[in-house]
Fold these 3 entries.
Entry 1:
Amino acid sequence: MSAQLRSELLKARTTRTAAGLLLCAVALTLLGVFVEGLSGTAAELARAKQQRLLLGAGSSGAGFFATFAGLVAVTAEFRYGTIRPTLLAEPRRRVVLAAKLAAAVPVGIVFAVVCLGLSFAAGLAILAARHAVVVLTTGDLAALALGSVAATALGAVLGVAVGALIRNQLAAVLAVVAYAFLVDAIVFAAVPSVGRFLPGKAGDALSGRPVDDLLSPSAGGAVLVAWTIALVALAAVRSDRSDV
């Protein structure tokens, strides 16, 4: 297991795809910060809710693209045929899957730390430039940061699980995009009492996003963990029973 984990971490550090996805997450973070920071009035920026949206803008981009990083870690192996030498070196499929899942956690943490650091720095600079007093406490900021890091790490793990379930890379990417922008958003808008239990909205709750009808951060975290466990279990069964 340790050798396979080192191999997966090496792949994550050296592939251009992961770096490209991180750059996309950074770009989306900057866009979110400037939209939140420049579209409202100074009075609106002085409110706690608006400051949560501004400083937490990095959580959305980090979580979205960390999910793709986890997904690509699996689907790229099937796309390019490298899954065969991987399984020749380590024939226990669950060990390979477990190593990919474990490697996804630090990848998600890196995405979250980079994007949150950027949104905090840019957001605080905008607040200072617009003469808006920071009303969030140190505890609020810590909860926002820790929740976002946890949600992003779980998002990367979910990406690995989805990639193991839908091995075709294009199909897996389209499925995640369709879920994020159609299923998750539409169900939550139409039936919030149901939509808030979906993985995306549970992640938003864990991240501390100030959106009406979301679960509490602790409840959102529990729901997201439950979804992660369920999809990982399905991915393990799929891995055991399918040819490569």
Entry 2:
Amino acid sequence: MEDGDDRSPGNNNADAITLRVLSAIEEDSRATQRGISQELGIALGLTNAYLKRCVRKGFIKVSQVPANRYAYYLTPRGFAEKSRLTAEYLSISFNFFRSAREQCAEQLATCARNRWTRVALAGCSDLAEITTLCARDETSVNIVGIVDTGSADQERVESFAGLPVVKRLTDLAKVHAVIVTDTKNAQQVYDQLTRSIPPERVLTARLLNVSRTQSRPDDD
């Protein structure tokens, strides 16, 4: 990892991990690398790399304590960086919510114009929750459930945002259209859905950057 300016738009994930590392240290200076790794849900090696990076940048200091352990402390520069990253995260979150709400409302209006009154969502996410909020204003459209698009090793849930969660779209009776709300694998979910239902009935928010013209493997 480089020690230069990390404020480019493409570095959001690195900034998010850095913020979580700094927050964990602020909450508990006695936390170990393994403890931070477990709390953040990232690999021990990655945690070590971020800690070393924060030390190089002057965000944290390390002191050796008895029993060959290390204590981590935020420096004034570290507190300032944590404040900056927090403000940046809140700004991104607000902008995401505003854009998502506008685009979800547009999708529901499309469903209403086409008289697609029974709509399913594909993916449990923040976008799914925002869509359900928007649906309260579009009373002619009823969201009937959410298709679980998570991987097989992820914990399954029976409901999300007050809606039933099912494994397959066919588990929901008479669905007129589907709105993709999976924010991690949107393209894959869209491609899978359009193999069984008309593409015009699979709606995708612009913020997901889904290509609606991508060729399918059996078309090659």
Entry 3:
Amino acid sequence: MEIAVAQFHNRTRRSLSIPAKLLRRGRLLEIPLYYLLRMSDLAREGLDHSGSYRFADHIYRNVPSGRGRLGRWLDARLLEMRAVRSFRNRFLAVRDALRDFLTSVPASPVRDMSYSAALMDVLSVPCGIPREMVEGVRLYRQRTGGTLEGIRFHGLDLDAGVLREAEAFARAGGLPNFTPHHGDALDRASYPAAADFITSTGLAEFLDNTQLERLYTIFFDVLRPGGVLVTSGMQPTRISEYLLRLAELDTHYRSPAELEAIARRLPFASVRTRLDGAGLQTILIATK
């Protein structure tokens, strides 16, 4: 019998030692660059752990750190790169979309209450550190003075350790009703029964088209009627592509039209895309 094994899709490292690989390939001048980059906390996390949740959250926080003054300076320069600023823009887009969604709830049609006593469910896949939830809720409260009564938050991730951190971060950030879900994003059984708002960033880049359509199919199934999906895709730049190759991250790039075409294979009521201000991140918003 064939058994499916869940994968960490962002862990594509093949070499035990990147410097050894550079040496074997005769790329000697890149070895000092590798060790220089490691002084930056952002670069070191990316090199050691591929596209980890800590790497993403470092960009979202946008606070330079590293080994010594040089490391912090280098980290700040990396955070200022166009590709990194664009990476952060996807967090800002989801944060703001969640704020707007929560703000619009009173004007929304009455939902089917048979699922639970909650008015709505908000889900992040994979959740990593759910900063977009905490910050989106903070902005929602600032704008409306509203409470979180009747709203449940969910985080799905394949890494049980990440989920423990996610739950602690959510509670510390004012989300006492956060439920972790341990499982594979490509397995419908890993999900809560239903959700009204789904955020998913940083996963599409590590899936081929068949896998991405499978992911969107699950999202469509999980969403209640009128529910909203906010997700993203990435386009390359020369420098970012070099750094991703150095870290051995296999990335799937898609244009807005390509990302939208995959989403439109599902019967969403509406699908729209836009490029972020840096012109590299595609933000896709689909409504069921």
